[in-house]
Design a protein that fits this description.
Layout (H helix, E strand, L loop, with lengths): L1 H25 L1 E6 L4 E6 L6 E5 L3 E6 L11 E7 L10 E3 L5 E4 L2 E8 L11 H8 L2 H6 L3
Antiparallel strand pairs: 1-2, 3-4, 4-5, 5-8, 6-8, 7-8
């Protein structure tokens, strides 16, 4: 019986790893933007931690702190029509290699804040940073 112990432990570890990978890969939160005509896929870890604001020519995703009394929300990223009169490209940092992408034959700027975007002394700063680091994969999920 002892000779089977290590192979059984290895099989269990592999099953746990595969289950976690499958959960993270396929358990996404879909958001359909009727304004931009796109779908974004957010990681399951974003559940209840973000808000989305849309205007006629943009979509912005913000961190939503657990403390609802906190006046601060941090911009995670924005997608804004390149023809928008309010657009100032220098106000945004790149998320992807290029600041501009084309969606449905329309050019859009995709960017984030040029500063930190959320108070670094806030107890939820690490959560904000972790989410901000996942924005590239969300942008790449656009379809």
């Amino acid at each position: 019986m002892k000779k089977y112990r290590i192979p059984i432990i290895i099989v269990i570890c592999i099953l746990v790893f595969v289950s976690i990978f499958a959960f993270n890969k396929y358990n996404k939160i879909k958001y359909n933007s009727k304004t931009l005509g796109i779908t974004l896929s957010f990681p399951a870890s974003f559940k209840d931690k973000y808000t989305i604001k849309e205007t006629n020519d943009s979509l912005s995703v913000y961190f939503k702190p657990e403390d609802s009394s906190s006046p601060k929300t941090g911009l995670l990223f924005t997608i804004i029509n390149a023809d928008s009169k309010d657009l100032n490209p220098d106000s945004y940092d790149n998320i992807l290699k290029d600041k501009f992408i084309t969606i449905n034959n329309q050019k859009y700027l995709v960017g984030s804040t040029t500063d930190v975007g959320f108070p670094d002394d806030n107890k939820e700063f690490k959560t904000y940073q972790k989410m901000k680091n996942q924005c590239k994969s969300i942008i790449e999920s656009i379809n």
